Amino acid sequence: xxxxxxxxxxxxxxxxxxxxxxxxxxxxxxxxxxxxxxxxxxxxxxxxxxxxxxxxxxxxxxxxxxxxxxxxxxxxxxxxxxxxxxxxxxxxxxxxxxxxxxxxxxxxxxxxxxxxxxxxxxxxxxxxxxxxxxxxxxxxxxxxxxxxxxxxxxxxxxxxxxxxxxxxxxxxxxxxxxxxxxxxxxxxxxxxxxxxxxxxxxxxxxxxxxxxxxxxxxxxxxxxxxxxxxxxxxxxxxxxxxxxxxxxxxxxxxxxxxxxxxxxxxxxxxxxxxxxxx
Length: 278
Ligand SMILES: [Zn+2]
Description:
Elements: E1 5-11, H1 14-21, H2 27-51, E2 55-59, H3 61-66, H4 68-76, E3 80-83, H5 96-114, E4 120-121, H6 132-138, E5 143-147, E6 155-159, E7 162-163, E8 169-170, E9 173-181, H7 188-192, H8 206-223, E10 228-233, H9 244-256, E11 260-261, H10 264-274
Parallel strand pairs: 1-2, 1-10, 1-11, 2-3, 4-5, 5-9
Antiparallel strand pairs: 6-9, 7-8
Helix pairs in contact: 8-9
The site of zinc ion has 6 residues, from loops.
Protein backbone atom coordinates (compact mmCIF):
# COMPACT_ATOMS: atom_id res chain seq x y z
CA UNK A 1 0.00 0.00 0.00
CA UNK A 2 1.30 3.46 -0.93
CA UNK A 3 2.07 5.81 1.92
CA UNK A 4 1.20 9.48 1.52
CA UNK A 5 4.17 11.81 1.83
CA UNK A 6 4.03 14.85 4.08
CA UNK A 7 6.75 17.51 4.00
CA UNK A 8 7.06 20.00 6.81
CA UNK A 9 8.49 23.15 5.25
CA UNK A 10 9.35 26.39 6.99
CA UNK A 11 9.92 29.79 5.38
CA UNK A 12 12.21 31.46 7.93
CA UNK A 13 12.03 34.93 6.37
CA UNK A 14 13.46 36.86 9.34
CA UNK A 15 13.88 40.62 8.95
CA UNK A 16 14.38 40.37 5.19
CA UNK A 17 10.67 40.16 4.38
CA UNK A 18 9.81 43.16 6.58
CA UNK A 19 12.55 45.21 4.91
CA UNK A 20 10.66 44.62 1.66
CA UNK A 21 7.19 45.28 3.07
CA UNK A 22 7.98 48.19 5.41
CA UNK A 23 11.50 49.63 5.18
CA UNK A 24 10.81 52.12 8.01
CA UNK A 25 12.40 49.63 10.45
CA UNK A 26 9.35 49.93 12.72
CA UNK A 27 10.31 48.27 16.02
CA UNK A 28 6.98 46.43 16.08
CA UNK A 29 7.72 44.84 12.70
CA UNK A 30 11.34 44.13 13.57
CA UNK A 31 10.13 42.54 16.82
CA UNK A 32 8.13 40.00 14.83
CA UNK A 33 11.33 39.01 13.05
CA UNK A 34 13.26 38.92 16.35
CA UNK A 35 10.57 36.55 17.67
CA UNK A 36 10.93 34.27 14.63
CA UNK A 37 14.67 33.82 15.13
CA UNK A 38 14.95 33.75 18.91
CA UNK A 39 11.68 32.12 20.03
CA UNK A 40 9.60 30.88 17.09
CA UNK A 41 12.00 28.67 15.17
CA UNK A 42 13.58 27.18 18.34
CA UNK A 43 10.06 26.24 19.52
CA UNK A 44 9.34 24.62 16.17
CA UNK A 45 12.62 22.69 16.28
CA UNK A 46 11.67 21.46 19.77
CA UNK A 47 8.35 20.21 18.39
CA UNK A 48 10.00 18.55 15.36
CA UNK A 49 12.38 16.74 17.74
CA UNK A 50 9.55 15.65 20.06
CA UNK A 51 7.50 14.37 17.10
CA UNK A 52 10.57 12.96 15.28
CA UNK A 53 9.75 14.82 12.06
CA UNK A 54 12.33 16.24 9.61
CA UNK A 55 11.76 19.66 8.04
CA UNK A 56 12.97 21.65 5.04
CA UNK A 57 13.69 25.23 6.03
CA UNK A 58 13.93 27.95 3.38
CA UNK A 59 16.01 30.86 4.64
CA UNK A 60 17.03 34.09 2.87
CA UNK A 61 20.80 34.61 2.99
CA UNK A 62 20.23 37.83 4.95
CA UNK A 63 18.41 35.85 7.68
CA UNK A 64 21.26 33.33 7.88
CA UNK A 65 23.57 36.28 8.56
CA UNK A 66 21.30 37.63 11.34
CA UNK A 67 20.48 34.26 12.97
CA UNK A 68 23.36 31.87 12.27
CA UNK A 69 23.06 29.84 15.47
CA UNK A 70 19.48 28.64 15.02
CA UNK A 71 20.31 27.74 11.41
CA UNK A 72 23.29 25.68 12.63
CA UNK A 73 21.05 24.01 15.19
CA UNK A 74 18.52 23.09 12.47
CA UNK A 75 21.26 21.48 10.35
CA UNK A 76 22.73 19.64 13.35
CA UNK A 77 19.28 18.19 14.07
CA UNK A 78 18.98 16.78 10.56
CA UNK A 79 16.82 19.37 8.84
CA UNK A 80 17.49 20.58 5.31
CA UNK A 81 18.10 24.26 4.51
CA UNK A 82 17.02 25.57 1.12
CA UNK A 83 17.68 28.74 -0.89
CA UNK A 84 15.12 31.50 -0.40
CA UNK A 85 16.82 34.47 -2.06
CA UNK A 86 19.04 36.94 -0.24
CA UNK A 87 16.75 39.81 0.82
CA UNK A 88 13.41 38.14 0.07
CA UNK A 89 12.90 40.41 -2.94
CA UNK A 90 10.08 39.76 -5.39
CA UNK A 91 12.09 38.03 -8.11
CA UNK A 92 9.42 38.75 -10.72
CA UNK A 93 10.31 42.45 -10.36
CA UNK A 94 14.01 41.89 -11.14
CA UNK A 95 15.82 41.66 -14.47
CA UNK A 96 18.04 38.60 -14.91
CA UNK A 97 21.23 40.32 -13.74
CA UNK A 98 19.58 41.64 -10.56
CA UNK A 99 18.03 38.23 -9.88
CA UNK A 100 21.38 36.54 -10.48
CA UNK A 101 23.01 38.89 -7.92
CA UNK A 102 20.33 37.96 -5.34
CA UNK A 103 20.80 34.29 -6.10
CA UNK A 104 24.59 34.38 -5.83
CA UNK A 105 24.55 36.58 -2.72
CA UNK A 106 22.31 34.01 -1.04
CA UNK A 107 24.63 31.16 -2.05
CA UNK A 108 27.59 33.08 -0.65
CA UNK A 109 25.85 33.50 2.75
CA UNK A 110 25.01 29.78 3.02
CA UNK A 111 28.57 28.82 2.12
CA UNK A 112 30.35 31.42 4.28
CA UNK A 113 28.25 30.97 7.43
CA UNK A 114 26.95 27.40 7.27
CA UNK A 115 29.42 25.70 4.91
CA UNK A 116 26.34 24.67 2.94
CA UNK A 117 25.36 24.42 -0.71
CA UNK A 118 21.54 24.24 -0.77
CA UNK A 119 20.04 21.52 -2.94
CA UNK A 120 16.80 23.37 -3.65
CA UNK A 121 15.04 26.68 -3.91
CA UNK A 122 11.72 28.25 -3.01
CA UNK A 123 11.01 31.63 -4.60
CA UNK A 124 10.45 34.47 -2.10
CA UNK A 125 6.67 34.92 -1.93
CA UNK A 126 6.36 31.65 -3.88
CA UNK A 127 6.51 33.50 -7.23
CA UNK A 128 9.05 32.48 -9.86
CA UNK A 129 10.26 34.77 -12.60
CA UNK A 130 10.91 33.37 -16.08
CA UNK A 131 14.61 33.45 -15.14
CA UNK A 132 14.38 31.66 -11.77
CA UNK A 133 14.54 28.09 -13.07
CA UNK A 134 17.37 28.88 -15.56
CA UNK A 135 19.30 30.38 -12.61
CA UNK A 136 18.63 27.29 -10.50
CA UNK A 137 19.96 25.16 -13.38
CA UNK A 138 22.96 27.46 -13.82
CA UNK A 139 23.89 26.90 -10.17
CA UNK A 140 23.22 23.16 -10.09
CA UNK A 141 20.15 23.12 -7.85
CA UNK A 142 18.10 19.95 -7.85
CA UNK A 143 14.59 21.25 -7.24
CA UNK A 144 12.25 24.19 -6.76
CA UNK A 145 9.47 24.14 -4.16
CA UNK A 146 7.20 26.82 -5.68
CA UNK A 147 5.37 24.51 -8.13
CA UNK A 148 1.79 25.26 -9.14
CA UNK A 149 1.19 22.97 -12.14
CA UNK A 150 0.03 20.10 -9.91
CA UNK A 151 -1.40 20.03 -6.40
CA UNK A 152 0.18 16.77 -5.18
CA UNK A 153 2.68 15.33 -7.67
CA UNK A 154 6.22 16.56 -8.41
CA UNK A 155 7.07 17.22 -12.07
CA UNK A 156 9.90 18.64 -14.19
CA UNK A 157 10.08 22.41 -14.63
CA UNK A 158 9.65 23.94 -18.09
CA UNK A 159 11.60 26.91 -19.39
CA UNK A 160 11.46 29.01 -22.55
CA UNK A 161 7.71 29.51 -22.95
CA UNK A 162 7.08 32.23 -25.54
CA UNK A 163 4.00 34.35 -25.93
CA UNK A 164 3.36 35.03 -29.59
CA UNK A 165 1.21 38.16 -29.98
CA UNK A 166 -2.13 37.23 -31.48
CA UNK A 167 -0.98 33.62 -31.69
CA UNK A 168 -0.61 30.48 -29.65
CA UNK A 169 1.58 30.06 -26.60
CA UNK A 170 4.78 28.28 -27.63
CA UNK A 171 5.65 25.93 -24.82
CA UNK A 172 9.30 25.58 -23.85
CA UNK A 173 11.28 22.49 -22.84
CA UNK A 174 11.36 20.37 -19.71
CA UNK A 175 14.59 20.74 -17.76
CA UNK A 176 16.25 18.79 -14.97
CA UNK A 177 14.83 20.78 -12.06
CA UNK A 178 12.09 19.00 -10.10
CA UNK A 179 9.10 21.13 -9.17
CA UNK A 180 7.51 20.27 -5.81
CA UNK A 181 3.96 21.62 -5.45
CA UNK A 182 3.11 24.48 -3.13
CA UNK A 183 -0.55 24.41 -2.03
CA UNK A 184 -1.92 27.77 -0.84
CA UNK A 185 -4.34 26.20 1.63
CA UNK A 186 -1.40 24.69 3.54
CA UNK A 187 0.24 28.09 4.27
CA UNK A 188 -0.16 29.26 7.87
CA UNK A 189 0.08 33.05 7.34
CA UNK A 190 -3.18 33.77 5.45
CA UNK A 191 -5.13 31.70 7.98
CA UNK A 192 -3.47 32.84 11.18
CA UNK A 193 -1.84 36.26 10.78
CA UNK A 194 -3.47 39.65 11.27
CA UNK A 195 -1.67 42.46 9.44
CA UNK A 196 -2.73 45.91 8.30
CA UNK A 197 -0.04 46.22 5.62
CA UNK A 198 -0.05 44.13 3.51
CA UNK A 199 -3.69 43.39 4.42
CA UNK A 200 -4.01 39.99 6.11
CA UNK A 201 -7.27 39.34 7.99
CA UNK A 202 -6.16 35.98 9.47
CA UNK A 203 -7.03 35.00 13.04
CA UNK A 204 -9.31 32.14 12.03
CA UNK A 205 -10.33 29.64 14.70
CA UNK A 206 -7.57 27.11 15.29
CA UNK A 207 -9.88 24.11 15.05
CA UNK A 208 -11.08 25.34 11.66
CA UNK A 209 -7.50 25.58 10.35
CA UNK A 210 -6.65 22.13 11.73
CA UNK A 211 -9.73 20.67 10.05
CA UNK A 212 -8.83 22.31 6.73
CA UNK A 213 -5.30 20.88 6.79
CA UNK A 214 -6.53 17.42 7.82
CA UNK A 215 -9.19 17.56 5.07
CA UNK A 216 -6.47 18.31 2.48
CA UNK A 217 -4.45 15.31 3.63
CA UNK A 218 -7.47 13.00 3.79
CA UNK A 219 -8.47 14.00 0.25
CA UNK A 220 -4.97 13.31 -1.05
CA UNK A 221 -4.92 9.92 0.71
CA UNK A 222 -8.19 9.00 -1.01
CA UNK A 223 -7.57 10.29 -4.55
CA UNK A 224 -3.79 10.64 -4.89
CA UNK A 225 -2.26 8.31 -2.30
CA UNK A 226 1.19 8.62 -3.90
CA UNK A 227 1.02 12.39 -3.53
CA UNK A 228 3.19 14.84 -1.62
CA UNK A 229 1.60 17.42 0.68
CA UNK A 230 3.80 20.25 1.94
CA UNK A 231 2.96 22.39 4.94
CA UNK A 232 4.29 25.96 4.51
CA UNK A 233 4.97 27.41 7.96
CA UNK A 234 6.46 30.67 9.21
CA UNK A 235 8.29 31.02 12.57
CA UNK A 236 6.82 34.49 13.01
CA UNK A 237 3.30 33.04 12.96
CA UNK A 238 2.53 29.45 13.92
CA UNK A 239 4.71 29.11 17.06
CA UNK A 240 3.19 32.25 18.63
CA UNK A 241 0.84 31.29 21.45
CA UNK A 242 -1.51 28.35 21.18
CA UNK A 243 -1.27 28.12 17.41
CA UNK A 244 1.53 25.57 17.64
CA UNK A 245 -1.13 23.09 18.80
CA UNK A 246 -2.55 23.14 15.26
CA UNK A 247 0.78 21.94 13.91
CA UNK A 248 1.27 19.30 16.60
CA UNK A 249 -2.22 17.90 16.07
CA UNK A 250 -1.84 17.90 12.27
CA UNK A 251 1.44 15.96 12.53
CA UNK A 252 -0.26 13.38 14.75
CA UNK A 253 -3.18 13.10 12.30
CA UNK A 254 -0.70 12.53 9.45
CA UNK A 255 1.03 9.79 11.45
CA UNK A 256 -2.33 8.14 12.08
CA UNK A 257 -2.89 8.14 8.29
CA UNK A 258 0.42 6.29 7.82
CA UNK A 259 2.24 9.27 6.29
CA UNK A 260 5.98 9.25 5.77
CA UNK A 261 7.76 12.54 6.41
CA UNK A 262 10.44 13.55 3.90
CA UNK A 263 12.70 16.53 3.32
CA UNK A 264 12.26 18.15 -0.06
CA UNK A 265 15.67 16.94 -1.27
CA UNK A 266 14.49 13.37 -0.66
CA UNK A 267 11.27 14.04 -2.61
CA UNK A 268 13.30 15.32 -5.58
CA UNK A 269 15.65 12.29 -5.44
CA UNK A 270 12.73 9.85 -5.31
CA UNK A 271 10.95 11.55 -8.21
CA UNK A 272 14.09 11.58 -10.38
CA UNK A 273 14.77 7.89 -9.66
CA UNK A 274 11.25 6.86 -10.67
CA UNK A 275 10.63 9.39 -13.48
CA UNK A 276 13.90 9.89 -15.42
CA UNK A 277 13.86 12.93 -17.69
CA UNK A 278 14.01 11.59 -21.24
ZN1 LIG B 1 9.46 33.71 2.34
